[in-house]
Specification:
Elements: H1 15-22, H2 28-47, H3 53-88
Length: 92
Amino acid sequence: MSNQYDQSQGRRPGLGDLFGRVLDRDNPVIEQLDRNARSLAQSALAKLDVVSRAEFDAQTEVLRRTRQRVEELEQTLDALTARVENNQTPTD
């Protein structure tokens, strides 16, 4: 039976050492798992109703301009309402 202690450091290999060997990027099994995981993730994302970052940014800008325009129209409406109310106020 081989000695499981790391002779250079006087300790047993830890989980980090074990995972490091198992998850070595040159391991063909890991490469295949990585490709499969990426493919699965891309497939799942394709099924979702998502938009690109560029589309999101464009719609955010449209919304910002729309909100600004609504605020301007609210101010105009308030001013017109005040004028109408002032003109309809009975003078004594």
